[in-house]
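Recall that a protein's primary structure is simply its ordered list of amino acids. Everything else, from secondary elements to tertiary packing, is in principle encoded there. The following example makes that idea concrete.
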Amino acid sequence: MNPLNSVVAAIERFDRLDGVAASLAKTVGRAVQARPVRNILSGTVIGHPLHPLLTDLPIGAWSMAALLDTLGGQASEPAADILVAVGIATAVPTAAAGLNDWSDTQGKPRRTGLVHAAANSTALCLYTSSAVARARGHRGLGKTLGLAGFGVLMFGGFLGGHLTYADAVNVNKTAGRNGPSKWTPVLGDSELSDGEHRKVDVAGVTVLLHRSGARVHALDSVCSHMGGPLEEGRIANGCVTCPWHGSTFRLADGSVVRGPASHPQPVYETRINNGHIELRRQPRT
């Protein structure tokens, strides 16, 4: 096994992190409870997770600072100092968005995420110390602290990549779930009363049906955020709320009303035909 993968496996098995992780996640959850805060930090307002976008800023700034510190001459010192400061400034909102996403994880991803956050926080402390040393004229110490911070940052980035590509944290859980392209009967019309909802299986996917008056809404029953069962959620005011993390979607079009979800739910067209409720996926536009 690759040495770095062995380290990750050891972190995933280290259940002594669970107590600290649970307490921190609870604190973060209270801090981001307000809908505007949750929607901003989750990326709901832009339709894409915010944390991956923000990580490019401190990583990019500190990477270039490391390059200038290593290969640049005296003329590049002011630029390196500016890049260190930019990395520090952008690391704060990046960490806030990352903690928001991490607070919804459980088990192995939560343990890995905690160490990922600790590594990046250590890098931030080292770069802050580097900035102070530079400002006081201790150029050699500043460079040493910066390069140490860059090394820790790379380890944190490796763990972040593992969370995304190996654990699929915050990846759209409805990707590839397409449903039928042609009208397909899924339930008898009389089996769904006004105000009721049902989960049905069709063409290899599960779909949530909800009747509101004469209209039947249909959307993927798997929450796009972490795969929660929407059929077990609360339906009110034309929306369904995931029972796992509180993501709220509009039944009519699948749009996200409240994060942490940033991807809308796939929705289906419905009709009543020969006493049956039929559905098909909406044509792509």
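The beta strands are 184-188, 197-202, 205-212, 215-220, 234-236, 239-241, 248-250, 256-258, 267-273, 276-281. Residues 3-165 form one domain.
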